[in-house]
Amino acid sequence: MEELLTERGLDSSYETIRRWFLKFGSTIAANLRRARPRPSDVWHLDEMVIVIRQKRYWLWRAVDNEGEVLDFLVQDRRNAKAAKKLMKKLLKEQGFAPSRIVTDKLRSYPPAFRDLALSAEHIHSHRANNRAENSHQPVRRRERKLQRFKSPVSAQRFLSVHAATYNTFTHQRHLNRRSFYKELRTASFDAWKSTSAAA
User: Where do the DSSP E strands lie in the chain?
Assistant: First the structure.
């Protein structure tokens, strides 16, 4: 970022960019999320391990069946209480309940769904949950580049902004004609300009 800005005639340091992220990142991410269309009602849930200061944490993640990142939660447990917390956060943020939920075979999910009285169909098969498994890959790449996260709070903050940006700019390029992909990309940049200007 520092070099890209320098090429455009703006002299800034990496510390300035870090402060911009801390000040404006969450606001821009919230604006981007509000501008997105409503996701589908088929949700895929999964959890992965991240290591922060030599301690294991669980990144609980939810995506819809089109790959849209719905939400996630950094927790120090992998149990029913953590699964319930993720679902409550999802239901509050999305404003509707799913018709189908796909998970792996972790036994923490059914008790959480029962406590919340969810009537959604629950499919718990490892292969059926490949959509959520694949959604972890960008996080793994970012984690390696950043030399791991410094704290659960900073991980949650960074991943929140990253997810909103990822949803806006990631398109299935190999599934679209070049002309249509260029339209999607232009729409993404327009969304970025309007939401960042509002911040």
Answer: 42-52, 55-64, 69-75, 100-103, 121-124
Select from 59, 70, 45 the least CA-distant residue to 130.
45
Contacts of 148 (CB under 8 A, 6+ apart): 50, 51, 52
162 contact partners, CB below 8 Å, separation of at least 6 = 138, 139, 142
Q: Give the separation between CA 133 and CA 128, rounded to whole angstroms.
A: 10
pLDDT (tens digit, 9 = 90+) per residue, 85-106?
Answer: 999 999 998 889 999 998 888 8
Specify the pTM.
0.71
DSSP letter at 14 equals H
Structure tokens at 184: 């999607």
pLDDT per residue as tens digits for the range 166-198: 878 877 766 778 888 888 888 888 888 888 776
What is the rounded CA–CA span in Å between residue 110 and residue 107?
A: 6
10 CB neighbour count, 10 Å cutoff: 10
Q: Which residues of 122-143 are buried (b: 16+ CB within 10 A; e: fewer)?
A: eebeeeebebbbebbeebeeeb
Cα separations in angstroms, 77 against 69, 83, 87, 177:
21, 9, 15, 44
Residue 177 CA: distances (Å) to CA of 58, 71, 155, 180, 181: 38, 29, 36, 5, 6
